[in-house]
Amino acid sequence: MTTRSEPEPGHGRPDPSLSAIMRERRQLINLAYRLLGSLAEAEDAVQETYTRWYAMSRQRQEAIESPGAWLTKVASRICLDLLGSARARRESYVGEWIPEPLPDRTEWMNGRPGDSRGDPADRVTLDESVDMAFLVVLESMTPAERVAFILHDVFRYPFTEVAAIVGRTPAACRQLASSARRRIRAARTPVAPTTRQAGVIRDFKQAWEAKDIAALVGLLDPDATMTADGGGRVGAVLRPVAGGERIARYIIEIGSRAPGLTLLERSVNGRPGLVAQHGGVTVTVAAFGLADDRITHIWAVRNPEKLRPWTV
Question: Which residue among 74, 166, 302, 311 is least crowded, i.e. fewest CB within 10 A of its CB?
Fold first, then answer.
């Protein structure tokens, strides 16, 4: 505790401890987005983490040996609780729920490099652990599996620390992470170089614009699936569309219903994707899964609440 004769911390200069605490924010956003699949929920979780930190007395804060570890532990527990409640919320969600897509920082704000105001990609590192296919698999895991796997396999926390967060033994956490790993391996397909992926998506865009069903069918795997997420706020198919030809005909029909639709090639969660705009407004962000140079999955996000990072 300071007295009147002692200089107050931060008086006349920045408080170094505050700077150190705030430097953890990016790491926490990265963690929370991977755990929750939603940037908005991740930001709320991190905000709640900092609220709890600043609710403590200065004496309690100074007694914490590693503030970064404390923040990570609290943020992870908040996310674990949110994952439990999210499962119930998503059961009542209108249609299919898809993780929130993120743009690449160089393509932020309609593709204008250098404009990073509020850019979530400045706070979320776009690597393979935010690939849409990866995030979709994470959605199939239990909350405990997801937290144990992300903390250990992605962020390299030892199981002893993971156990303290999840509330289970290190051995149990090791089993949770192993189960999650099996799910990832079962769903994983060989990833083609980005340039090849981009070429396939470009061909898909051109075929869509030309309303060339035969070309679209040739780019789609016969067993491809397309999932759309409108959240009940905009029109979207409520169940996945299965089969390459059915998908081709469906998207041609969508284009005919929205004359003036503009398709843009954009990076979606670090992979080549497409953004559809109507009247200059982003209405759909599509992520793709590919295998052997053919499209196996399309995840089309149309819920306006999930398109906030893509909207000027």
Answer: 311
Sheet holding 261-268, edge to edge: 241-242, 220-229, 294-301, 281-291, 271-278, 261-268
- Which sign, positive or negative, has the C-alpha torsion 165, 166, 168, 171? negative
What confidence tens digit (pLDDT) does each residue in 177-225 have? 999 999 999 988 877 888 999 999 999 999 999 999 999 999 999 999 9
Number of alpha carbons in the 13 Å side-chain half-sphere of residue 295: 31
Number of H helices and E strands in the chain, helices first, is: 13, 6
**Which tokens go with 243?**
């089969």
Contact 287, 269 (CB under 8 A): yes
The closest alpha carbon to 131, from 93, 108, 104, belongs to 104
Q: What is the pLDDT of residues 156-166, one digit of tens each?
A: 999 999 999 99
Strand 281-291 relative to strand 294-301: parallel, antiparallel, unpaired?
Answer: antiparallel
